[in-house]
């Protein structure tokens, strides 16, 4: 009887504990997600982490699954996947982190965080893997191309990446690109650039730039060479210089491929010597040729030719060098001063030859005996010095044909002396 009572009490205690456990579980909250998994974007080759925040986890387990590849990655603290780039960590609170190191393209997709409740609860986040642009050389135009002038050419540039890159063309020198019937634009969008009837001015480096918002942008440099036969123009085809001097003549050339340029005189190629100096300045497909001829002699005058040739042709320009007289210095004016009179010592006259008809003719006439005239001072006339008569002449002068300077001087003297008579012949 006692044994039966003890056994009954044991079963009763077990039942009470079981009921208490059930009641305790019923009163406890089930696990739940505190926040959604964010969508994460990461560049190729970088590291990424996806968080899963679970409250009231209790004794339940958290697992990570890659949905796109149908791959179980982790369960609780254990890594199930054989891919060593995946790992898991727990902050001893509510957050479970899935780590992906050196992210690859195949890691892109949906990731599920799952709790093994009954029924199971889960949530999903997306890992976006972006890829910087990359130009595919095998599918693009080679780095250097050559085309004859006035022909058509197409430049192609292919690139991959995620998102899909956009292609833009620019000229390295900043010049415009001729498209759509010679319309010029600073930049052109598209994988293919068509150049119609290309000219030598369009020669140079073209940049194909690929960008998709993921740094860095990349570019490919394509050099376009436009080939044409040489052309020459001469600024001065006729050049004159005096003997004994130095002279420089010049020609301008354009050619591609680069031309061989030289000077010829009297069917002989001119090389740099003490007599001749040559200089060529090149810029892209242009060249400026200069020839200096020193200490010109009679045998140096004649026809000089500048010649330019490349694989596509040959051309020449002609310059005629002729002799001109050495310029002489102009004659200097001479001065004549009168030293006979202190009052007129500062006056200056320009000497000139006297014409026979201009020589003065003087007729001396006597006045009354009462008029006595003292000899006057010498007067500067411009053609010589004139001295009025003394008492023996007794009187002023009578003038028939007199040059203007003499006339003025004599008139002035007569007024000063008080005697003036004019005779007409």
The largest sheet, given as strand count, sense and whether it forms a barrel, is: 8 strands, mixed
Give unreliable regions as ranges: 336-402, 419-425
The helix count comes to 2
Classify the helix fraction into a percent range.
under 10%
Spatial extent as radius of gyration: 57 Å
Mean pLDDT, as a whole number? Answer: 81
| Backbone shape | rod-shaped
Q: How much strand?
A: 35-45%
The count of strands amounts to 34
Structural class of the secondary elements?
mainly beta
Query: How far apart are the first and last residues' alpha carbons, in Å?
Result: 200 Å
Descriptive keywords:
2 helices, 34 strands, mainly beta, 9% helix, 425 residues, 8-stranded mixed β-sheet
Task: Give the helices and strands, then pairings.
Blueprint: H1 2-27, E1 32-35, E2 40-43, E3 48-55, E4 62-66, E5 71-75, E6 78-79, E7 86-90, E8 95-100, E9 109-115, E10 121-135, E11 144-148, E12 153-156, E13 159-162, E14 166-171, E15 177-179, E16 183-185, E17 188-189, E18 192-195, E19 204-211, E20 218-233, E21 238-241, E22 247-256, E23 260-265, E24 268-269, E25 276-283, E26 286-293, E27 302-310, E28 313-323, E29 335-336, E30 349-350, E31 361-364, E32 379-380, E33 385-386, E34 397-401, H2 404-417
Parallel strand pairs: 2-10, 11-20, 21-28
Antiparallel strand pairs: 1-3, 3-8, 4-5, 4-9, 5-6, 7-8, 9-10, 10-13, 12-18, 14-17, 14-19, 15-16, 19-20, 20-22, 22-26, 23-24, 23-27, 25-26, 27-28, 29-30, 31-34, 32-33
């Amino acid at each position: 009887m006692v044994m039966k009572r003890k056994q009954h009490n044991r079963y009763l205690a077990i039942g009470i504990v079981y009921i208490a456990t059930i009641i305790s579980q019923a009163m406890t909250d089930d696990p739940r997600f505190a926040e959604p998994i964010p969508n994460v974007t990461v560049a190729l080759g970088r590291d990424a982490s996806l968080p899963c925040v679970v409250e009231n986890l209790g004794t339940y387990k958290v697992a990570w699954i890659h949905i796109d590849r149908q791959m179980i990655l982790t369960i609780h603290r254990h890594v199930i996947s054989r891919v060593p780039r995946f790992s898991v960590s727990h902050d001893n609170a509510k957050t479970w982190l899935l780590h992906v190191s050196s992210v690859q393209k195949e890691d892109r997709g949906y990731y599920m965080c799952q709790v093994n409740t009954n029924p199971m609860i889960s949530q999903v986040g997306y890992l976006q893997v972006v890829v910087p642009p990359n130009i595919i050389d095998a599918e693009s135009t080679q780095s250097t191309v050559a085309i004859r002038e006035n022909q058509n050419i197409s430049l192609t540039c292919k690139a991959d990446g995620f998102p899909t890159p956009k292609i833009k063309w620019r000229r390295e020198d900043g010049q415009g690109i001729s498209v759509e019937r010679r319309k010029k634009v600073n930049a052109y969008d598209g994988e293919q650039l068509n150049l119609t009837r290309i000219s030598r001015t369009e020669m140079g480096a073209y940049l194909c730039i690929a960008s998709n918002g993921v740094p860095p942008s990349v570019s490919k440099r394509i050099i376009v060479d436009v080939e044409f036969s040489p052309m020459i123009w001469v600024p001065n085809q006729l050049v004159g210089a005096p003997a004994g001097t130095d002279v420089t003549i010049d020609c301008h050339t354009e050619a591609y491929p680069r031309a061989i340029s030289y000077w010829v005189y009297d069917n002989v190629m001119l090389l740099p010597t003490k007599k001749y100096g040559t200089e060529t300045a090149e810029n892209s497909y242009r060249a400026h040729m200069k020839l200096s001829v020193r200490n010109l002699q009679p045998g140096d005058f004649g026809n000089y030719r500048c010649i330019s040739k490349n694989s596509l042709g040959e051309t020449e320009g002609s310059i005629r060098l002729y002799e001109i007289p050495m310029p002489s210095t102009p004659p200097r004016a001479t001065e004549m001063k009168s030293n006979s009179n202190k009052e007129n010592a500062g006056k200056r006259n320009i000497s000139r030859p006297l014409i026979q008809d201009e020589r003065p003719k003087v007729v001396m006439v006597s006045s009354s005996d009462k008029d006595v005239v003292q000899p006057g001072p010498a007067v500067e006339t411009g053609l010589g010095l004139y001295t009025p008569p003394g008492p023996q002449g007794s009187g002023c002068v009578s003038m028939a044909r007199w040059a203007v300077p003499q006339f003025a001087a004599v008139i002035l003297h007569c007024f000063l002396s008080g005697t003036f008579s004019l005779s007409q012949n």
